[in-house]
Specification:
- This protein has helices at residues 2-20, 25-37, 42-61, 66-69, 72-92, 108-117, 121-170, 172-175, 179-206, and strands at residues 98-100, 103-105.
- With 207 residues, the protein is mostly helical.
- It has one domain (2-206).
- A two-stranded antiparallel ribbon has the order 1-2.
- A hairpin with a 2-residue loop joins strand 1 and strand 2.
Length: 207
């Protein structure tokens, strides 16, 4: 029982880390938010990330996963538009709030929810690696197995993003004077990512 439990947590940790280390909008926001506020905010961002993913997992377990996993083209298009807008606004900001219309992402936790919700790779990950992870936990130990692999997955997220945030904060003397340049670079990255997802969404609609 103890061995199986530890094994499931370890599996969740490794699979989760494989997704966490891939550069994306959440990483860009973590770098931006930490450098802007001058303190470690990665764990707060991850709380928002976990809140959103908890909802996704709940929907999948209740049989409503198709609502998220079955609308890939629409999610790519919506996510691409939002990320492109946020990227442009990030480039225009000078270390203040990032705006999208009337929405202001100045909260670390809110940003964690926002950049997870509008990340088009989320449904793809949950339809593949994430779903396989949940099924493995369910197969080995039922609902407890699902909880254990999920805990492992979230531990990897918290560990990686808090570490990244800490490194940025630790080198604040180098990072802070370059806040404007960092905002521009990360904004360009988000805009390019948004355009890429828009292209992917259009291609999926055509096909």
């Amino acid at each position: 029982m103890i061995f199986e439990s530890l094994a499931l947590v370890a599996i969740g940790l490794v699979v989760g880390l494989s997704g966490a280390v891939i550069p994306g909008p959440l990483l860009a926001f973590t770098l931006f938010d930490t450098s802007k506020k001058g303190r470690v905010t990665g764990h707060y961002i991850m709380m928002g990330h976990v809140l959103w993913e908890f909802g996704v997992i709940l929907l999948i377990l209740l049989g409503f996963g198709w609502m998220i996993l079955g609308n890939t083209p629409i999610i790519y298009l919506a996510g691409g538009i939002v990320l492109a807008i946020m990227g442009i606004n990030m480039m225009r900001s000078r270390g203040g709030e990032v705006k999208m219309g009337e929405v202001r992402v100045n909260s670390s936790l809110g940003g964690g929810i926002f950049y997870t919700a509008f990340n088009p790779t989320q449904p793809v990950w949950w339809a593949t690696a994430g779903l396989a992870l949940l099924l493995k936990g369910l197969e080995v130990m039922g609902i407890l197995g699902v909880v254990l692999v999920t805990v492992g997955h979230w531990l990897s997220d918290f560990g990686y993003y808090t570490f990244v945030s800490f490194v940025v904060h630790r080198h604040a003397s180098y990072v802070s004077p370059r806040q404007r340049q960092i905002s521009t670079i990360l904004g360009l990255f988000l805009t390019a990512l948004g355009i890429y997802f828009l292209q992917q969404g259009l291609e999926k609609l055509v096909l």
